[in-house]
Design brief:
This is Putative membrane protein insertion efficiency factor. By secondary structure, this protein is mainly alpha-helical. It has 2 helices and 2 strands. The protein is 61% helix and 4% strand. The protein has a two-stranded parallel sheet.
Length: 95
């Protein structure tokens, strides 16, 4: 295996581990913290469901960025509403 392939494989393994950690944190929040608080999310899907879908669809790094942007929008001055996770764009191959 060439050096570049090893680096890509190591990156993919770390990405998977990080993604699972973030998903675990969200599931912990959904199971143990969210039930003790009143429903206040102004969005559909809720921020925690959005985060799960973002990590599952886009991986750890982009999923984290999308989730962070969503949470920062969740405040009294934003109207909320339907805000789905964007679809994953296919990478363009440059020749």
């Amino acid at each position: 295996m060439c050096g570049r392939a090893i680096i890509i494989e190591e990156y993919a393994e770390k990405e998977t581990v990080m993604k699972q950690i973030f998903i675990g944190i969200i599931r912990f929040y959904q199971k143990f913290i969210s039930p003790m608080t009143p429903p206040t999310c102004r969005f559909h899907p809720t921020c925690s469901h959005y985060g799960l879908e973002a990590f599952q669809k886009h991986g750890a790094f982009k999923g984290f960025w999308l989730t962070l942007k969503r949470i920062l929008k969740c405040h009294p001055f934003h109207p909320g509403g339907f805000d789905p996770v964007p679809e994953k764009k296919e990478k363009e191959h440059k020749h």
